[in-house]
Specification:
The complex is a heterodimer of chains A (about 400) and B (about 240). Chain A is α+β, with helices and mostly antiparallel strands and about 400 residues long. Chain A is built from twelve helices and twelve strands. Chain A folds into two domains: about 170 residues, no CATH class; about 170 residues, no CATH class. Chain A is about 55% helix and about 20% strand. In chain A, helix 2 packs antiparallel against helix 8, helix 2 crosses helix 10 and helix 2 packs antiparallel against helix 11. The two termini of chain A are about 30 Å apart. The longest helix of chain B is centred in the last third of the chain and has 16 residues. In chain B, helix 3 runs parallel beside helix 5 and helix 5 packs parallel to helix 6. Chain B has eight helices and ten strands. Chain B has one domain: 3-Layer(aba) Sandwich (Rossmann fold). In chain B, the strands form two sheets. Chain B has a six-stranded mixed sheet, with helices on both faces. In chain B, strands 2-1-4-5 form a four-stranded antiparallel sheet, with helices on one face. Classes of the chains: A alpha+beta (about 400), B alpha/beta (about 240). Chains A and B meet through helix 1, helix 9, helix 10 and helix 12 of A and helix 2 and helix 3 of B.
């Protein structure tokens, strides 16, 4: 009796099975589908968050003034400033071999006006490096020009939304806008970046950091963004930055260096744990389905008592009978799982169609996990009925008319 | 060749013990045609079950073709059943969802015969028992006589040494019944031991040797006629 024979026999039994078996298939299908759907949602959420974070830049390090032990999690909006981060501090960081680029960042709010229109807008002060560090793109013109970062120039780069609101159709390049009481010339407009983790670049403007410092009469930097040379250099870059700044700050460790890596890793851990947890809960339903399998198989054994007796009479060994019934239970779970997967695919597709903003992909490990669990459930819950069948007394079995 | 010695079969029914078989000594030579008759409860079905290795005696030994079977494990008994014994039942006991051909194929599958050889042997059996045109029909599409023919084909597909029939014509009309008996006797003529358990006196008389059972014992055994005759013609 080879595998093909067993399969044929089992499939024939299932094909002629009645309503009870079909309901069982439905139960298995629903649990498998639930597990797959939930892992999909969890996994998609994880990719989304990680993707957004990764978009911030590559091999990014963020230096904040003030010593907060933030290991992962979003950077605090207000650092407890022990000592200001200065522009010179930022420039000093380029001494590290592990650091490829450094971009200082200041933030302030001021009214920006052109023609008759005026709006309070977030002003970001930085240097040419910011373009690469934050993976920005231009729709028109150019970004802040490279040069001496300590020189204040009257140049401004507009975010796409700002440009639309102030210029609405008029050509922005070369025009002069007013920020507070000062005039700045528009040299470029950023391409749409969209909202990323709460910050909307499109709704800001960039001016040279030195100009921002004068404009707001404040010399402390909000952040320093640094890009490490490679993935392997991130840790070294972090150590170097802390070294350099500690030396510059009279031996005080009053800055916090966050690596994008670390944040990503933390989010990854949290969301993975969450996904596994909800999948685990859904898997409970598979255990229930397993109990149902056992029930249906037990009833089947009772109903087919005469058949089992007959099989024994024609020479089937107890082991062969066990294999046959076990195969049926396993086939039941696998077919149920297959239906469940089709259901999950269908529902995911619909979900993706309705909520097009939230990309959903079914993770392959989720499918494998669901199918394997169904298989194991069939095995575990099928073994008892199969053993019953194998141990059946043929005389009793055949005497029942 | 079948040898039963001192066979006892005791059943526990509630608080009582039922002696279904008591002190059975029986020897059956190859190609013998034996009928077993007796009132209900006389133990004839139990005897058949013991002969077919479906039941284990409480005491005594059963040697089949030189192989002692009483101490065999279930797995080994299953193998003996597979190779040496064929069963034909009153109610046919065909698997309802399989076709005639698939039913006949079953013993070959359990015996581990390769698919191609299985197909060949089933085809031969279908023509030998004149049911080729019914090969792909399921039991519910067959007449009683055809079903029993399928059952006989299944019982003999492994070329057993013994064919055990429990009321083989009990569910058949006269014509199908005689057809089935003709087939069984034809198989016996080819060398199979044929044991028929029946209530039908006419059927029982057809056998060359008749056992009559009462209360779990062999009350009468017409013995082996040839030897008896020889004894009678011995000059006194």
């Amino acid at each position: 009796m080879n595998v093909k024979d067993i399969l044929r026999f089992s499939l024939k039994s299932l094909a002629s099975a009645g309503l009870r078996t079909r309901l069982l298939l439905l139960a298995v299908a629903i649990s498998v589908s639930a597990v797959v759907m939930l892992t999909t949602v969890g996994e998609s959420a994880r990719s989304y968050v990680l993707g957004e974070f990764a978009q911030l830049g590559t091999h990014l390090l963020i230096v904040l003034p003030g010593r907060n032990e933030t290991t992962g999690g979003p950077p605090p909006m207000m650092g407890e400033t022990a000592r200001d981060l200065t522009l010179e501090d930022a420039l000093a960081l380029t001494r590290s071999y592990a650091v490829r680029r450094v971009a200082p960042l200041t933030v302030g709010n001021a009214p920006v006006s052109f023609g008759g229109r005026e709006r309070e807008i977030t002003i970001l002060g930085s240097t040419a490096e910011m373009f690469e560090v934050r993976h920005l793109a231009m729709s028109m013109g150019q970004f802040l020009p490279p040069g001496d970062p300590e020189r204040a120039e009257a140049l401004v780069v507009l975010g796409s939304k700002v440009e639309q609101e102030l210029f609405a159709g008029t050509r922005a390049l070369g025009q002069w806008v007013r920020i507070n009481d000062w005039r700045f010339r528009v040299i470029g407009v950023l391409a749409d970046k969209g909202e990323s983790l709460g910050a909307d670049i499109d709704d800001t403007v960039f001016i040279p950091v030195a100009s921002a410092q004068s404009l707001f009469d404040s010399f402390g930097l909000f952040r320093i963004l640094a890009q490490a040379r490679s993935r392997d250099d991130i840790q070294k870059a972090k150590e170097d930055i802390r070294e350099i700044l500690r030396a510059r700050h009279d031996g005080e460790e009053d800055v916090t260096v966050i690596t994008q890596d670390a944040v990503l890793a933390t989010f990854d851990r949290i969301l993975t744990a969450l996904t596994l947890a909800i999948a685990g809960i859904a898997a409970i339903s598979l255990a229930v389905a397993g109990v149902l399998i056992m029930n249906v198989m037990l009833v089947s054994v009772v109903q087919r008592t005469a058949e089992i007796g007959l099989l024994k009479a024609i020479g089937a060994s107890p082991r062969q009978i066990l294999k046959l019934f076990l195969a049926e239970a396993i086939m039941l779970s696998l077919i149920g799982a297959a239906i469940g997967l089709i259901l999950a695919f269908g529902l995911t597709w619909i979900f993706g169609w309705v909520f097009s903003a939230f990309p959903v992909t079914i993770p392959s490990w989720g499918i494998i996990a669901a199918a394997t669990t169904a298989l194991v459930a069939g095995l575990i819950f099928g073994i008892m009925p199969a053993r019953r069948a194998a141990k059946l007394d043929p005389v009793q079995a055949l005497s029942r008319r | 060749m079948i040898e039963l010695s001192g066979i006892q079969r005791v059943f526990q029914v509630g608080n009582e013990q039922v002696h279904a078989l008591q002190d059975i000594d029986l020897r059956i030579e190859p190609a013998e045609y034996l009928s077993v008759m007796g009132p209900s409860g006389s133990g004839k079905s139990t005897l058949l079950n013991i002969l077919g290795l479906l039941d284990r005696p409480t005491a005594g030994t059963y040697v089949l073709d030189g192989v002692p079977t009483t101490q065999l494990k279930e797995r080994d008994q299953a193998e003996v059943r597979s190779r040496k014994i064929g069963f034909v039942f009153q109610f046919f006991h065909l698997v309802p969802r399989l076709t005639a051909a698939e039913n006949i194929e079953l013993p070959l599958i359990f015996a581990g015969i390769a698919p191609r050889e299985r197909r060949e042997r089933v085809t031969l059996a279908l023509s030998a028992f004149r049911i080729e045109d019914r090969a792909h029909h399921r039991p519910d599409q067959l007449s009683g006589g055809q079903r029993q023919r399928v059952a006989i084909a299944r019982a003999t597909i492994m070329e057993p040494a013994v064919l055990l029939a429990d009321e083989p014509t009990g569910n058949l009309d006269r014509i199908s019944g005689s057809d089935v008996i003709r087939i069984l006797e034809g198989l016996n003529a080819k060398g199979l031991i044929l044991v028929v358990v029946t209530h039908d006196v006419d059927l029982g008389k057809r056998a060359r040797r008749t056992l009559r059972m009462v209360d779990g014992r062999i009350d009468q055994d017409s013995g082996r006629p040839r030897i008896e005759r020889r004894a009678r013609t011995w000059p006194v």
